């Protein structure tokens, strides 16, 4: 019997929906045993979030500073044939509960030498988080063999409004009567079922070379040029501002409230102002620098790490 471990974090259930769609072909097959491990912080995050609390999570998440977690329910000595890690990008980085787990001795035992598939559910920016995930997995001697992405397909500005309504108000359906429902697209969930069959085939053959091309073919590595450019600017600036906030203390320290509040104003304002400009730049880039965008997309659609 093949053994699969699913490690995940979720507050809203969207990650579990993506997992269930991707592993649908395994669930009722007695040849496979699936263990699910929900990573839980010792002190849970609120949901819905308060805006100040949401922004205060930014610095520690950017730097991947570990937080205390609840003990694992599974046996870390158990030998699995495949590991699935489902997570969300927070502030262009791996969400803190999952990054904390990946820095534990238990993660080292479980992932050492194992094939790993990542499943991401997000607004639209996941590249920086996945680059950090690749580094974590490399340090754990794990082998990333596939990456499925389930984004919100709305425009950047629309999804900015709907994700804030989703995270801060718990609004999952249409917001204010005309903003669309935030979250995973049913079309992507349907496409994931076919990818699940490929995962099963690869697991049986112990050869995953065909998996990532199948994921890309199913459009489950969704990329937009303007989002790539905007994310690149954020990845350059976020560590600087995160360090600026942390100079006033650790998470929850009242001394850093003003700096967190300023960041909470600057971030959505920057997205609002820069989105139209970056969209124009993204359309001009293939003309000014032929092939550059194609090379970038080709890199992010594979599982390797830049040398």
Keywords:
307 residues; 5-stranded parallel β-sheet; alpha/beta; Rossmann fold
Structure description:
The chain has helices spanning 14-22, 24-27, 51-56, 58-62, 96-101, 105-111, 127-139, 156-169, 186-205, 211-217, 225-246, 257-288, 292-300; strands spanning 2-8, 32-38, 82-87, 89-90, 93-94, 115-122, 143-151. The chain has a single domain, classed as Rossmann fold. The chain is built from 13 helices and 7 strands. The mean pLDDT is 91. The chain is α/β, with parallel strands linked by helices. The chain starts with a strand and ends in a 7-residue tail after the last helix. The chain is globular and about 55 Å long. Helices cover 50% and strands 13% of the residues. Strands 2-1-3-6-7 form a 5-stranded parallel sheet, sandwiched between helices. A two-stranded antiparallel ribbon has the order 4-5.
Order of helices and strands: EHHEHHEEEHHEHEHHHHHH
User: Beta-strand percentage?
Assistant: 5-15%
Named at the architecture level, the CATH assignment is: 3-Layer(aba) Sandwich
In CATH's first tier, which class applies?
Alpha Beta
Number of domains: 1
**Biggest sheet, open or closed, and with what strands and sense?**
5 strands, parallel
Short description:
The protein has 307 residues and is α/β, with parallel strands linked by helices. It contains 13 helices and 7 strands. The strands form 2 sheets. Strands 2-1-3-6-7 form a 5-stranded parallel beta sheet, with helices on both faces. A two-stranded antiparallel sheet has the order 4-5.
């Amino acid at each position: 019997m093949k053994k699969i471990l699913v490690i995940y974090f979720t507050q809203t259930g969207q990650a579990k929906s993506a997992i269930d769609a991707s592993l649908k072909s395994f669930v009722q097959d007695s040849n496979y045993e699936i263990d699910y491990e929900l990573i839980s912080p010792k002190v849970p995050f609120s949901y819905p979030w308060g805006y100040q609390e949401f922004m205060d999570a930014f610095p520690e998440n950017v730097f991947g500073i570990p937080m205390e977690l609840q003990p694992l329910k599974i046996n870390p000595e158990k030998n699995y044939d495949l590991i699935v890690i489902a997570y969300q990008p927070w502030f262009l980085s791996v969400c803190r509960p999952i990054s904390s787990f990946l820095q534990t001795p238990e993660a080292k035992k479980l992932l050492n030498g194992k094939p790993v598939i990542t499943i991401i559910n997000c607004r639209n920016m996941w590249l920086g988080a996945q680059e950090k995930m690749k580094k974590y997995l490399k340090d754990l001697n794990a082998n990333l063999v596939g990456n499925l992405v389930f984004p919100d397909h709305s425009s950047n500005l629309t999804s900015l409004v709907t994700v804030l309504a989703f995270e801060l108000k718990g609004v999952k359906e249409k917001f204010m009567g005309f903003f669309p429902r935030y979250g995973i697209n049913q079309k992507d969930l349907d496409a994931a079922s076919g990818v699940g069959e490929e995962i099963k085939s690869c697991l049986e053959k112990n050869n995953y070379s065909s998996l990532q091309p199948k994921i890309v073919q199913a459009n489950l590595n969704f990329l937009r040029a303007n989002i790539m450019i905007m994310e690149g600017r954020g990845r350059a600036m976020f560590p600087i501002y995160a360090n600026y906030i942390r100079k006033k203390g650790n998470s929850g320290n009242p001394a850093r409230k003003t700096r967190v509040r300023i960041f909470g104003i600057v971030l959505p304002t920057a997205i609002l102002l820069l989105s139209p400009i970056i969209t124009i730049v993204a359309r001009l880039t293939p003309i000014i620098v032929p092939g550059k965008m194609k090379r970038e997309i080709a890199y992010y659609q594979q599982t390797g790490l830049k040398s």
